[in-house]
Amino acid sequence: MLPTGSSTTGSTVSIDELESDIGYRFRNRELLLRALTHRSRIYEKNPPGTGQNDNEQLEFLGDSILGFVISEYLIRRFPGHPEGRLSKLKAHLVSATRLYEVAQSLNLGDYLILGRGEEMSGGREKRALLADAIEAIIAAIYLDSGMDDARRFIEDQVPGPELFEDGEITTSDHKSALQELAQALKLPQPKYTILSEEGPEHAKMFTVEVRVGKDWVSKAQGNSKKSAGQKAAQLVLNQLSDWGR
Predict the structure, then answer these.
(1) DSSP string, 76-127
(2) What beta strand segments (E) does 113-245 contain?
(3) Of 55, 119, 132, 203, which shows the fewest CB atoms inside 10 Å?
(4) Quick check: is 135 catalytic?
(5) Statement to judge: residues 156 and 187 lie in one domain
(6) Domain count, the chain
(7) Which residue, among 230, 236, 234, 231, has the nearest Cα to 217 in the 3D structure?
(8) Alpha carbon distance 47, 39 (integer Å)
(9) Residue from 54, 63, 118, 209 carrying the catalytic annotation
(10) Does residue 158 sit in the same domain as residue 179?
(11) Is 156 part of the annotated catalytic residue set?
(12) Tell me: the pLDDT tens digits for 214-227?
Protein backbone atom coordinates (compact mmCIF):
# COMPACT_ATOMS: atom_id res chain seq x y z
CA MET A 1 0.00 0.00 0.00
CA LEU A 2 1.22 3.51 -0.81
CA PRO A 3 1.71 5.76 2.20
CA THR A 4 -1.23 8.08 2.76
CA GLY A 5 -0.50 11.65 1.77
CA SER A 6 2.49 10.94 -0.45
CA SER A 7 2.95 10.09 -4.08
CA THR A 8 6.03 7.84 -4.50
CA THR A 9 7.53 10.49 -6.81
CA GLY A 10 8.56 12.96 -4.14
CA SER A 11 5.37 14.98 -3.78
CA THR A 12 4.23 15.69 -0.23
CA VAL A 13 0.68 16.76 -1.05
CA SER A 14 -1.95 15.22 1.19
CA ILE A 15 -4.55 12.82 -0.14
CA ASP A 16 -6.84 14.31 2.55
CA GLU A 17 -6.69 17.61 0.66
CA LEU A 18 -7.71 15.94 -2.59
CA GLU A 19 -10.66 14.22 -0.93
CA SER A 20 -11.72 17.58 0.48
CA ASP A 21 -11.45 19.22 -2.95
CA ILE A 22 -13.48 16.55 -4.73
CA GLY A 23 -16.07 16.52 -1.93
CA TYR A 24 -15.88 12.80 -1.25
CA ARG A 25 -14.21 10.74 1.50
CA PHE A 26 -13.25 7.23 0.41
CA ARG A 27 -14.10 4.23 2.53
CA ASN A 28 -11.48 2.26 0.63
CA ARG A 29 -8.66 4.68 -0.09
CA GLU A 30 -6.86 2.04 -2.16
CA LEU A 31 -9.38 2.82 -4.91
CA LEU A 32 -8.38 6.47 -4.95
CA LEU A 33 -4.69 5.60 -4.97
CA ARG A 34 -5.23 3.24 -7.88
CA ALA A 35 -7.16 5.94 -9.75
CA LEU A 36 -4.12 8.20 -9.43
CA THR A 37 -1.58 5.54 -10.48
CA HIS A 38 -0.33 5.72 -14.06
CA ARG A 39 0.78 2.53 -15.78
CA SER A 40 4.36 3.83 -15.95
CA ARG A 41 4.60 3.39 -12.17
CA ILE A 42 3.38 -0.20 -12.28
CA TYR A 43 5.69 -1.17 -15.15
CA GLU A 44 8.70 0.17 -13.28
CA LYS A 45 7.91 -1.52 -9.94
CA ASN A 46 6.27 -4.85 -10.85
CA PRO A 47 7.28 -7.61 -13.26
CA PRO A 48 4.90 -8.35 -16.14
CA GLY A 49 1.86 -10.46 -15.29
CA THR A 50 1.70 -9.59 -11.58
CA GLY A 51 -1.67 -7.84 -11.72
CA GLN A 52 -3.45 -4.74 -12.94
CA ASN A 53 -2.97 -2.01 -10.35
CA ASP A 54 -2.86 1.12 -12.52
CA ASN A 55 -5.84 3.29 -13.44
CA GLU A 56 -6.53 2.07 -16.99
CA GLN A 57 -9.46 -0.21 -16.14
CA LEU A 58 -10.94 2.46 -13.87
CA GLU A 59 -10.60 4.95 -16.72
CA PHE A 60 -12.53 2.55 -18.99
CA LEU A 61 -15.37 2.27 -16.48
CA GLY A 62 -15.36 5.96 -15.62
CA ASP A 63 -15.72 6.95 -19.28
CA SER A 64 -19.00 5.02 -19.52
CA ILE A 65 -20.33 6.41 -16.25
CA LEU A 66 -19.43 9.95 -17.29
CA GLY A 67 -21.23 9.64 -20.62
CA PHE A 68 -24.39 8.30 -19.00
CA VAL A 69 -24.52 10.88 -16.20
CA ILE A 70 -23.84 13.83 -18.52
CA SER A 71 -26.57 12.64 -20.93
CA GLU A 72 -29.00 12.39 -18.03
CA TYR A 73 -27.93 15.80 -16.70
CA LEU A 74 -28.39 17.55 -20.05
CA ILE A 75 -31.85 16.09 -20.60
CA ARG A 76 -32.92 17.37 -17.16
CA ARG A 77 -31.35 20.80 -17.63
CA PHE A 78 -32.45 21.40 -21.23
CA PRO A 79 -35.67 19.40 -21.72
CA GLY A 80 -36.56 21.33 -24.88
CA HIS A 81 -33.28 20.77 -26.72
CA PRO A 82 -33.29 18.45 -29.76
CA GLU A 83 -30.79 15.60 -29.99
CA GLY A 84 -28.33 17.55 -32.14
CA ARG A 85 -27.87 20.34 -29.61
CA LEU A 86 -27.65 17.89 -26.71
CA SER A 87 -24.97 15.96 -28.57
CA LYS A 88 -23.00 19.15 -29.08
CA LEU A 89 -23.07 19.95 -25.38
CA LYS A 90 -22.29 16.38 -24.36
CA ALA A 91 -19.36 16.12 -26.76
CA HIS A 92 -17.78 19.15 -25.15
CA LEU A 93 -18.41 18.09 -21.56
CA VAL A 94 -16.97 14.58 -21.92
CA SER A 95 -14.01 15.72 -24.03
CA ALA A 96 -10.41 15.48 -22.90
CA THR A 97 -10.27 19.26 -23.11
CA ARG A 98 -12.99 19.74 -20.51
CA LEU A 99 -11.74 16.95 -18.22
CA TYR A 100 -8.27 18.50 -18.36
CA GLU A 101 -9.78 21.79 -17.17
CA VAL A 102 -11.49 19.97 -14.29
CA ALA A 103 -8.22 18.26 -13.37
CA GLN A 104 -6.41 21.59 -13.37
CA SER A 105 -9.03 23.13 -11.07
CA LEU A 106 -8.37 20.30 -8.60
CA ASN A 107 -4.56 20.53 -8.97
CA LEU A 108 -4.77 16.84 -9.82
CA GLY A 109 -1.30 16.73 -11.33
CA ASP A 110 0.15 17.15 -7.84
CA TYR A 111 -1.39 13.82 -6.79
CA LEU A 112 -0.57 11.59 -9.75
CA ILE A 113 1.56 8.52 -8.98
CA LEU A 114 3.99 8.25 -11.86
CA GLY A 115 6.99 6.26 -12.93
CA ARG A 116 10.31 8.08 -13.03
CA GLY A 117 10.36 8.34 -16.82
CA GLU A 118 6.87 9.83 -16.97
CA GLU A 119 7.73 12.18 -14.13
CA MET A 120 10.82 13.41 -15.96
CA SER A 121 8.87 13.98 -19.19
CA GLY A 122 6.35 16.31 -17.51
CA GLY A 123 3.58 13.79 -16.93
CA ARG A 124 1.95 15.88 -14.22
CA GLU A 125 0.97 18.46 -16.86
CA LYS A 126 -0.02 16.12 -19.68
CA ARG A 127 -3.57 16.64 -20.90
CA ALA A 128 -4.25 12.95 -21.59
CA LEU A 129 -2.97 11.73 -18.21
CA LEU A 130 -5.00 14.27 -16.29
CA ALA A 131 -8.20 13.68 -18.27
CA ASP A 132 -7.80 9.91 -17.80
CA ALA A 133 -7.32 10.38 -14.06
CA ILE A 134 -10.62 12.26 -13.77
CA GLU A 135 -12.42 9.32 -15.42
CA ALA A 136 -10.61 6.91 -13.10
CA ILE A 137 -11.68 8.90 -10.04
CA ILE A 138 -15.30 8.76 -11.24
CA ALA A 139 -15.06 4.96 -11.41
CA ALA A 140 -13.32 4.78 -8.02
CA ILE A 141 -16.13 6.75 -6.37
CA TYR A 142 -18.71 4.54 -8.06
CA LEU A 143 -17.00 1.33 -6.87
CA ASP A 144 -16.56 2.75 -3.38
CA SER A 145 -20.18 3.80 -2.78
CA GLY A 146 -22.34 3.65 -5.90
CA MET A 147 -23.90 5.84 -8.56
CA ASP A 148 -25.34 8.59 -6.36
CA ASP A 149 -21.94 9.80 -5.17
CA ALA A 150 -20.40 9.36 -8.62
CA ARG A 151 -23.23 11.43 -10.10
CA ARG A 152 -22.78 14.10 -7.44
CA PHE A 153 -19.06 14.41 -8.21
CA ILE A 154 -19.65 14.62 -11.96
CA GLU A 155 -22.43 17.21 -11.71
CA ASP A 156 -20.45 19.30 -9.20
CA GLN A 157 -17.22 19.30 -11.20
CA VAL A 158 -17.82 18.79 -14.91
CA PRO A 159 -20.62 21.03 -16.32
CA GLY A 160 -19.70 24.36 -14.74
CA PRO A 161 -22.25 27.19 -15.09
CA GLU A 162 -19.71 29.33 -16.94
CA LEU A 163 -19.77 26.90 -19.89
CA PHE A 164 -23.33 27.66 -20.88
CA GLU A 165 -25.25 30.67 -22.09
CA ASP A 166 -28.86 29.99 -23.05
CA GLY A 167 -27.99 26.33 -23.45
CA GLU A 168 -25.03 26.87 -25.77
CA ILE A 169 -21.30 26.32 -25.27
CA THR A 170 -19.49 29.60 -24.74
CA THR A 171 -16.04 28.23 -25.57
CA SER A 172 -14.07 30.12 -28.22
CA ASP A 173 -12.36 26.96 -29.51
CA HIS A 174 -14.89 26.27 -32.25
CA LYS A 175 -12.56 23.90 -34.12
CA SER A 176 -12.28 21.56 -31.14
CA ALA A 177 -16.01 21.81 -30.46
CA LEU A 178 -16.77 20.97 -34.11
CA GLN A 179 -14.44 17.99 -34.08
CA GLU A 180 -16.04 16.64 -30.90
CA LEU A 181 -19.58 17.20 -32.21
CA ALA A 182 -18.81 15.49 -35.53
CA GLN A 183 -17.49 12.50 -33.62
CA ALA A 184 -20.53 12.42 -31.34
CA LEU A 185 -22.90 12.55 -34.34
CA LYS A 186 -20.85 9.89 -36.19
CA LEU A 187 -20.06 12.31 -39.00
CA PRO A 188 -16.74 12.55 -40.89
CA GLN A 189 -14.07 14.63 -39.21
CA PRO A 190 -13.86 18.28 -40.39
CA LYS A 191 -11.51 19.04 -43.29
CA TYR A 192 -10.04 22.54 -43.65
CA THR A 193 -8.87 24.04 -46.94
CA ILE A 194 -7.20 27.41 -47.48
CA LEU A 195 -9.05 28.84 -50.48
CA SER A 196 -7.13 32.08 -50.89
CA GLU A 197 -4.55 34.48 -49.47
CA GLU A 198 -5.03 38.12 -50.45
CA GLY A 199 -3.41 41.46 -49.66
CA PRO A 200 0.10 42.61 -48.74
CA GLU A 201 2.26 40.66 -46.30
CA HIS A 202 1.53 43.00 -43.40
CA ALA A 203 -2.24 42.83 -43.94
CA LYS A 204 -3.06 39.46 -45.47
CA MET A 205 -6.61 38.16 -45.54
CA PHE A 206 -7.14 34.39 -45.57
CA THR A 207 -10.23 32.52 -46.73
CA VAL A 208 -10.68 29.06 -45.21
CA GLU A 209 -13.32 26.47 -46.01
CA VAL A 210 -14.37 23.66 -43.66
CA ARG A 211 -16.32 20.57 -44.70
CA VAL A 212 -17.95 17.89 -42.59
CA GLY A 213 -18.88 15.16 -45.04
CA LYS A 214 -20.81 16.24 -48.15
CA ASP A 215 -23.62 18.14 -46.49
CA TRP A 216 -21.98 20.59 -44.09
CA VAL A 217 -19.71 23.26 -45.54
CA SER A 218 -18.87 26.87 -44.84
CA LYS A 219 -16.09 29.37 -45.43
CA ALA A 220 -14.89 32.47 -43.62
CA GLN A 221 -12.20 35.13 -43.79
CA GLY A 222 -9.71 36.22 -41.17
CA ASN A 223 -6.38 37.97 -40.80
CA SER A 224 -4.76 34.62 -40.00
CA LYS A 225 -5.36 31.03 -41.06
CA LYS A 226 -6.26 30.20 -37.45
CA SER A 227 -8.90 32.91 -37.06
CA ALA A 228 -10.43 32.14 -40.44
CA GLY A 229 -10.61 28.45 -39.53
CA GLN A 230 -12.24 29.22 -36.19
CA LYS A 231 -14.87 31.42 -37.85
CA ALA A 232 -15.63 28.80 -40.49
CA ALA A 233 -15.90 26.10 -37.80
CA GLN A 234 -18.35 28.25 -35.85
CA LEU A 235 -20.56 28.61 -38.93
CA VAL A 236 -20.70 24.83 -39.39
CA LEU A 237 -21.43 24.40 -35.69
CA ASN A 238 -24.39 26.73 -36.15
CA GLN A 239 -25.55 24.71 -39.16
CA LEU A 240 -25.44 21.49 -37.16
CA SER A 241 -27.32 23.13 -34.27
CA ASP A 242 -30.04 24.32 -36.67
CA TRP A 243 -30.20 20.81 -38.12
CA GLY A 244 -30.62 19.40 -34.61
CA ARG A 245 -33.54 21.73 -34.00
Answers:
(1) HH-TT--HHHHHHHHHHHTSHHHHHHHHHHTTGGGG-B--HHHHHTTGGG-H
(2) 164-165, 168-169, 191-198, 205-212, 216-222
(3) 203
(4) yes
(5) no
(6) 2
(7) 236
(8) 12
(9) 63
(10) no
(11) no
(12) 888 999 998 778 77
Predicted model pTM: 0.65
**CATH number of the domain where residue 210 is located:** 3.30.160.20
Specify the CATH number for the domain of residue 63. Answer: 1.10.1520.10
- Catalytic residue (one of 118, 135, 180, 209): 135
Q: How many residues does the chain have?
A: 245
The residue among 165, 184, 206 that closes a domain is 165
Q: What residues of the chain score a pLDDT lower than 70? A: 1-13, 42-52, 160-173, 202, 241-245
Q: Please say whether the beta carbons of 101 and 131 come within 8 A.
A: no
Based on the domain organization, do 191 and 225 belong to the same domain?
Answer: yes
Same domain, 217 and 108: no
Cα torsion at 203, 221, 88, 61 (round to 10°)?
-50
The confidence score (pLDDT) of residue 1 equals: 35
**Are 181 and 132 part of one and the same domain?**
no
DSSP one-letter code for 11: -
Burial of 222 (C-beta count, 10 Å sphere; 0-12/13-18/19+): middle
